[in-house]
Amino acid sequence: MLYTFNLEVNIKHKFEYEWTLKDANFTKDKGKVFSCFACGGGSTMGYKLAGYDVIGCNEIDPKMMEAYRTNHNPKYSYLEPIQEFKLRKDLPKELYNLDILDGSPPCSSFSIAGNREKDWGKEKKFREGQAEQVLDILFFDFIDLAKELQPKVVVAENVKGLLLGNAIEYVKKIYAEFENAGYYCKHYLLDASIMGVPQKRERVFFICIRKDLAESFLEQVGFFDMLPKLEMQFDEIKIPFSEISDNCDLTIDLPKVAGKLWHDCKSGNALSSVPESNGNFFNEIKVSKKQTLPTLSSQNKIYHSDIPRRLNNVEYFKGSTFPFDYNTCKMKAFYMCGMSVPPVMMAQISSQIYEQWLSRI
To answer: Which CATH class name applies to 32-238+341-360?
Structure first.
């Protein structure tokens, strides 16, 4: 489905959050990228905004792949589990000459909103129509692919929960596996709200450079560790919800119970703060007009500050920095956006990778 939007922009940023695919200037002069776990192409659009040429993708979900192909028309696209994709012996030579291999391995096993340890090691279907997989080992399948393709740089995105509690053991293993694959690795906890994205979305990014290219970019940390030096400092003006609120007719009304809690809930709080909630509705938040949106999930449990309704499609597109003419192929806009890296977030990160690393190699 296509939507129409008001393209009036109030705040200037390095990458504007209000944009369209048809009017974007994708220069394709910064290097070649291939994206894994690509979903509908959130990270892909970020690389394109930053000037990269995204030549293809790997994705397991047929509906997501349909949206990706519709909006991006990739040169190469592989609809299959990464466990199968990493074993292919018929990949084109271009994939062995990448500047960046990108990936966002499914991360629900580590999310602080999920079951965490209870789900580790279990086969699950991430979404209807997909094959059952052990979600917490997909990251290592991705590293196996990096070891095979040997791109200059690898970028892997995951949830903040990966840095908490027992999950830190996975981080240690990720570092070890990147080491074995021939890469120096460093992780960053980054907040999209200071990159020109109208939501506070904190994500962990593992950014790695191939060892034979890394000599000029290494710094000693502590007595023994050598890590790649890459500054990730951002200070964009935060965008409050009042800037993206859009009372178009694409509204999503509240159920009766949630509606009553919404009326009694103070802006900026979860509905669970209302005594009558009985501790339920913990992740369902009534936004504040003066604050940046919280993380937009794929379940749309964020409520408008002034109107008793969930956020609508327009607000999800704006808050996620998706282009206004993005075709969701009949999928829910909030699901598509909630599952994706905000394009502007990836544009900011990949710009730094180019300026500090790739342009100097």
So the answer is: alpha beta
Sign of CA dihedral 310, 315, 321, 324: positive
Nearest Cα to 142, choosing from 85, 210, 221, 74? 85
Count Cα neighbours of 98 within 13 Å in the Cβ-side half-sphere. 26
pLDDT digits (tens, 9 = 90+) for 288-320: 999 999 999 998 899 999 999 999 999 999 999
The pLDDT value given to residue 112: 42
**What is the number of other CB atoms lying within 10 angstroms of the CB of residue 355?**
14
pLDDT digits (tens, 9 = 90+) for 319-334: 999 999 999 999 999 9
Residue ranges covered by each domain of the chain: 32-238+341-360, 241-337
Residue of 107, 208, 265, 337 marked active site: 107
Tell me the pTM: 0.91
Single out the residue of 44, 243, 74, 7 nearest to residue 157, CA to CA: 44
Q: Catalytic annotation on 107?
A: yes
SS3 at position 349 = helix
Q: H or E element: which one contains 189?
A: strand 183-191
Q: Which of 154, 236, 223 is nearest to 190 (CA)?
A: 236
Helix (H, G, I), strand (E, B) or coil at 66: helix
